[in-house]
Amino acid sequence: MSDAVGSHPQYDAFADDFLDHAHSGIHNAHCDRPACLELLGEVDGRSVLDVACGPGLYAEELVARGARVVGFDQSPRMIELCRQRAPSGEFRVHDLAERLDWLPDGSVDRVLFALGIEYVDDRVAALRELRRVLRPDGAFVLSRPHPTGTWLHHGGSYFDVRVVEDVWSRGWRLRYWLAPLEQTCEELREAGFLIERLLEPRPRAESADTDPERYERMSREPTAFLALRAVPDPRR
C-alpha cells in the first residue's frame, strides 16, 4: 500500500448515507460535534471556515448560532447536501491539497477542521494554509480519531505513521492516516500553532438510552475522538 491517501473524494459514493449516519449517531451527534462546538466558543457575528464541511451538520449549527460560514469539501455531493442544510453559507468543492487562493490572509475568525485531517497527505502544508487565512487573534478547532483507539483497532506500532485501509460497519471502504498524538502536536507546532486546550470527549448522557452498548464503551475507553483548540503562535 502506498504512503498516500490521494485526492479521490472517498465519501462521495455514500454521502447521503453518511448524512443519515452522522445526523443523530452517537459518535458524531453526541460526541464530536458537541466537543467541537464547545471549543469554538461564541461564534455570533464571527466568520467561520468549515474545512471538510461534509453534509453540513456543523455548518447548520454554526449558522443557527449566528456565524457567517464559508466551507469546502472534496466531495461534490457533500457540497450539495451542505448547501441544502445551510443555504446562507458559502460552500465550494475544493481539495485541501491545493492553496486556498480564494481566501485572503487573516480573513476568518475561526477555523473548524472536524474529522478530516486523517485524509490529508501533506498535513503541515494544509495546516499552514489554514493558519494563513486565520486572523492573528483567531482560533483553530481540530478533531481527529483518538490515536489510542485507532492503534487498538489496527494493531502494529502505536508510533508508526502510516496509511491503512478500513471497512466501516456500513460497508464503507476508506483509506486514512494513523499517527500518534505526538505527531499531530508536532505538525501543529511546525505549522505555527500553539495548543490551548485538548479534550477527549465522551458521549453526552442523553445518548445512553439510544445506544447503551456504545455509550458504555465510549464512556470508559478511548475509542472515539480527540478535539483540540489551537491559536496562532505570535512568535511566528
Automatic annotation (TrEMBL):
InterPro entries with a match to the protein in the record: Methyltransf_11, SAM-dependent_MTases_sf
GO molecular function, one term: S-adenosylmethionine-dependent methyltransferase activity
Keyword Heme: no
Species lineage: Bacteria, Bacillati, Actinomycetota, Actinomycetes, Streptosporangiales
Organism: Lipingzhangella halophila
Domain annotation Methyltransferase type: ranges: 49-142
Stored SUPFAM superfamilies: S-adenosyl-L-methionine-dependent methyltransferases
Alphabetized Pfam families for the sequence: Methyltransf_11 (PF08241)
PANTHER family: 2-METHOXY-6-POLYPRENYL-1,4-BENZOQUINOL METHYLASE, MITOCHONDRIAL, METHYLTRANSFERASE
Sorted UniProt keywords: Methyltransferase, Transferase
Gene3D superfamilies noted in UniProt: Vaccinia Virus protein VP39
GO biological process, one term: methylation
Name the UniProt record assigns to this protein: SAM-dependent methyltransferase
